[in-house]
Amino acid sequence: MADAAGRLTKLAEEVLGAPLPVRIRAWDRSESGPPGAPTLVIRHRRALRRLLFKPGELGLARAWVAGDLDIDGDLYEALDRLAGLIWDRSDAPKPPRAALVRALARPEFRAAAREMLALAGAPVPPTPPAEELRRRRGPLHTLRRDKEAISHHYDVGNDFYALVLGPSMVYSCAYWESPQATLEDAQRDKLDLICRKLGLRKGQRLLDVGCGWGSMVLHAAREYDVRAVGITLSEEQAGFARKRIAEAGLADRIEIRVQDYREIHDEPFDAISSIGMAEHVGRTQYAEYADALYSLLKPGGRLLNHQIARRPVADEEAYHVDEFIDRYVFPDGELAPVGRTVGQLEEAGFEVRDVEAIREHYALTLRSWVDNLERHWDEAARLTSPGRARVWRLYMAASALSFERNRIGVNQVLAVRTPEPGDSGTPLRTREWCAGTHRG
Questions:
Q1: pLDDT tens-digit series, residues 84-107
Q2: Number of Cα atoms under 13 Å in the Cβ half of residue 387
Q3: Non-local CB neighbours of 439 within 8 Å, separated by 6+ positions
Q4: What are the residue boundaries of the Polyketide synthase-like methyltransferase domain, all occurrences included (predicted)?
Q5: What CATH architecture is 143-434?
Q6: Distances (CA, A) of 385 to 50, 60, 392, 423
Q7: Strands, E, within 216-345: which ranges?
């Protein structure tokens, strides 16, 4: 196929009715498109076959994971230019598709693509292995299925996550004093901010739901002298956290369990932190989640719920998770608007005392993780697989742009199980806990 890039550019521009926003370099080394723009590298013609058989995000994701597609140039600029064609969303009642994605499914385009691929003699491409969660058993958000979904995302290897996250081993939005701060300082400041919002004091009992690699419980026990229980569904996370706790000499004050929040039947806690965990709960289970956390708190106890939020849409029942994220990153995960989260916490009995939006902080965090991954690329690919490393790079870079463009946000919601006659125990000036940072 002579001048494949030129033919593809012409075809794309006919479909879009506008110039292609990126340059194309095809497998035959031909190039076409705006000079100086980031280049979409189509390494193999089977990338087109993937798009033909799975139009939209999933076909693109499979081509990216397999290494059939790549970006030459600034990844963020390329994704930003392509966002309107791939990830753009609207308030349409059906799952929307931007112009190029809709066109890929039209019969006339499919016929043209089949003809081109037949000339190229490309076979039907296999689904990239391992990186895609193939087996989904039973209804959503059962104990078993949630554990499988968490394992898919988090049991990738602690060494891999250590390369991406850095020494803090915190996999949630950091809290930045300035863009020039270090990731490690910003993560420590986030953990300390949560401790101060929870009003932790010596001897109190903290539950950390979705404790990850144990960073929150370690900080709370070390800096605030509390006793802590951390729960996770990931065996790898639990083993890593227990080792860190033992090395810190805090095994007598911190317990790590592989346990679902629905299985906790302990005596009530003084405080609960849930940091980046509620996104896994699912809309059908969120009321149960809120009820469970309310029941686990003592009267006067505080909950800090740190959660990614999406923008509201006109038809909430038509909301769907992006195929790329659902298949490759967070199986069965769901985002909710912050208003719904606040409402459901209130319906469970909580008094919501404070909501802090920190979406710009997550963009900075994600860019730092991408930098870490790119600096350690060969080792990261060796520790997992090249495909899995490519998934994380694309996911984190695209997510950074989504936070920067206000497509999604992240919020810390402080809620209290306020006792009778109504003293919440929170300070009159709540923003005082945001002034300065605790250095221990």
A1: 766 554 433 333 345 555 555 566
A2: 14
A3: none
A4: 160-419
A5: 3-Layer(aba) Sandwich (3.40)
A6: 20, 19, 11, 53
A7: 227-232, 254-258, 269-275, 297-310
pLDDT tens-digit series, residues 175-187: 999 999 999 999 9
Amino acid at 357: A
Reading the block at residue 277, the tokens are 């965990």
Per the CB < 8 A criterion, the answer to whether 113 and 47 are in contact is: no
Does pTM surpass 0.85? yes
Note if the bond before 167 is cis, omega within 30 degrees: no
Each domain of the chain, given as residue ranges in start order, spans 4-120, 143-434
Amino acid sitting at position 105: A
Residues ≥6 apart with Cβ < 8 Å to 92: 314, 318
Determine contact, residues 328/132, Cβ cutoff 8 Å: yes
Number of Cβ within 10 Å of residue 110's Cβ equals: 16
Residue 67 has, within 13 A of its CA and on its CB side, a CA count of 7
- Using alpha carbons, list the distances in angstroms from residue 347 to 174, 250, 264, 273, 421: 29, 37, 21, 19, 19
Q: Three-state SS for 257?
A: strand
